[in-house]
């Protein structure tokens, strides 16, 4: 009898004190009501980009935040420490950015920027696919990662000038003809975790245009 009461009490306490969860950026204990899985401190220190979408080569471009220490921590934890659950929260930030810009109903399909296969195999996943999958769910649309292929590996972009970046990425992507129909006549949202000079986005856009989409927009999580 006493033991049963103990179990009941445990259950009750379990309801009052749910399992602790941790801020996805600094690891502080938070509760599940916190937006994006961030603690109050981290959410305040993220540098949110509230500027309206800009135009890059006829491509509407949205960025959620600037690439500061907090944003970098999230991207690094996702990419290099395998914390895949961060992708869901990044997708939530993208969704809110799109709602804020009144663009959440403008797109039919999401195409994430692909990684070179060998890199993806080594990491075990492509973070942009994960983010794209979650964002598509949030917006009630599809994510079609197969449509873009990365056919050539690039050297690291760090330290390169804008022109060197463009040269480095040129010819890196190809259209997968088997999936070209999926984007023909549709509004495509290209998605990447990171934005610097726009060289990657422009190159992807060029390739996607071969399939005859109605339009192409671009969203990145963090921008330099
Ligand atoms: Zn935090």
| Low-pLDDT residue spans | none
The gross shape turns out to be: globular
Rounded to the nearest angstrom, the distance between the terminal CA atoms is: 63 Å
Q: What is the SS-derived class?
A: alpha/beta
- Our count of domains comes out at 2
* Spatial order of strands in the largest sheet: 3-4-10-9-5-6
**Helical element count?**
9
Question: What's the level 1 CATH class of the largest domain?
Answer: Alpha Beta
Bin the strand percentage.
Answer: 15-25%
Strand and helix order: HEEHEEHHEHHEEHEHEHE
Named CATH topology of the largest domain? Rossmann fold
Q: Based on the structure, what is the oligomeric state of the protein chains?
A: single chain
Please give the radius of gyration in angstroms: 20 Å
List the helices and strands and how they pair.
Layout: H1 2-16, E1 21-22, E2 29-30, H2 40-45, E3 54-56, E4 59-66, H3 69-79, H4 85-100, E5 109-112, H5 117-123, H6 127-139, E6 142-143, E7 148-150, H7 162-169, E8 173-175, H8 180-183, E9 187-195, H9 199-209, E10 215-223
Parallel strand pairs: 4-10, 5-6, 5-9, 9-10
Antiparallel strand pairs: 1-2, 3-4, 7-8
Helix pairs in contact: 4-6
Bound molecules: zinc ion.
Zinc ion binds near residues 38 and 41.
């Amino acid at each position: 009898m006493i033991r049963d009461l103990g179990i009941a009490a445990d259950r009750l306490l379990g309801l009052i004190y749910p399992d602790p969860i941790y801020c996805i950026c600094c690891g502080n204990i938070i509760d599940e009501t916190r937006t994006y899985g961030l603690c109050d401190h981290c959410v305040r220190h993220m540098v949110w980009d509230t500027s309206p979408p800009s135009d890059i080569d006829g491509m509407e471009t949205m960025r959620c935040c600037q690439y500061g220490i907090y944003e970098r921590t999230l991207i690094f934890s996702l990419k290099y420490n395998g914390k895949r659950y961060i992708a869901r929260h990044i997708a939530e930030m993208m969704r809110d950015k799109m709602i804020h810009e009144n663009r959440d109903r403008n797109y039919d399909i999401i195409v994430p920027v692909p990684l070179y296969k060998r890199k993806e195999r080594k990491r075990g996943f492509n973070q942009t696919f994960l983010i794209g999958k979650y964002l598509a769910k949030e917006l009630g649309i599809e994510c079609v990662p197969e449509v873009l292929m990365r056919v050539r590996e690039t050297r690291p972009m760090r330290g390169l000038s804008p022109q060197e970046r463009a040269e480095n990425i040129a010819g890196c992507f190809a259209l997968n003809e088997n999936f070209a129909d999926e984007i023909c006549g549709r509004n495509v949202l290209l998605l990447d975790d990171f934005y610097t000079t726009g060289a990657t986005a422009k190159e992807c856009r060029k390739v996607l245009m071969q399939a005859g989409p109605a339009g192409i927009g671009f969203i990145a999580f963090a921008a330099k």
